[in-house]
UniProtKB/TrEMBL annotation:
Protein name: ATP-dependent Clp protease proteolytic subunit
Region listing for Disordered, in residue ranges: 1-21
Biased composition (Pro residues): 10-21
UniProt-listed Gene3D superfamilies: 2-enoyl-CoA Hydratase, Chain A, domain 1 (3.90.226.10)
Biological classification of the source: Bacteria, Pseudomonadati, Planctomycetota, Planctomycetia, Planctomycetales
Ranges that cross the membrane: none
Highest taxon listed in the record's lineage: Bacteria
Length: 227
């Protein structure tokens, strides 16, 4: 009985190569390039013409930053500012530097990105009716009817712009509530800025966008406004 003999296998001419390292995903502070900066400050009614003209003069579909420090004012002016921001396709990042209350909440909500410091103040409250005109009974009744519709419509619009439930807006607005910037950020409606960060505003915004781009789930309100 003979034993079968096996020929020794030849060594493979191929040798495994070490894995190539993947691209780095660490963040470096690259400063974005906004095309413009503007402010919404003071009483909206008093600044109405100037603010509307500023927004109309900006190149349509352009990107920039709107700094907000306003106690609010006329609800119609807030609505007009928000409408122009949206209808002209402005890729605006809003930054609340102090206060953003009442009617000023509307242009804030209309911006693609919203940033606040923990120290910012935001007042949500129902629309207030104030008139120095001498109204007839019929005019007062009609205004009351329209006022009721407008109040509900603005609550729904604000909720849609903020991308939150109308119940949340109603909860904050009835009878009224001051929120801190941190509380607004905790609700997912804005992002926090750090006054003591070594990076400036643009670098903090860019860092936030980088972090959101590498998260699994979509962020609630950020869009890459300067992409």
């Amino acid at each position: 009985m003979t034993k079968s003999s096996k020929k020794p296998s030849k060594p493979s001419p191929f040798r495994p190569l070490p894995a190539h390292p993947g691209p780095s995903i660490s963040w470096s502070p690259i400063v974005p390039n906004p095309e413009w900066e503007m402010t919404i400050a003071g009483d909206l009614f008093e600044q109405q013409t100037e603010l509307l003209e500023k927004l109309v003069e900006l190149p349509r579909r352009s990107a920039g930053i709107i700094y907000i420090d306003s106690c609010g004012g006329n609800a119609y002016v807030g609505l007009a500012l928000a409408s122009i921001i949206r209808l002209r396709g402005l890729k605006a990042a809003a930054v609340v530097t102090g206060e953003c209350s009442s009617a000023a909440l509307m242009p804030l909500a209309a911006c693609r990105e919203r940033y606040v410091t923990p120290h910012a103040s935001l007042l949500f409250h129902p629309i207030r009716w104030q008139s120095d005109d001498q109204l007839k009974l019929e005019e007062a009744v009609e205004w009351a009817r329209h006022f009721r519709w407008m109040e509900s419509d603005q609550d729904q619009l604000l909720a849609r712009l903020f991308n939150c439930s109308v119940e949340l807006i109603t909860e904050w607005s009835r009878p009224g509530r001051f929120l801190s910037g941190k509380e607004l950020a905790d609700a997912g409606l804005a992002h926090l800025l750090d006054l003591f960060d070594s990076h400036d505003l643009w670098q903090q915004i860019e860092k936030h966008r980088f972090e959101q781009a590498h998260k699994k789930g979509p962020d609630r309100q950020t869009e890459l406004a300067w992409a």
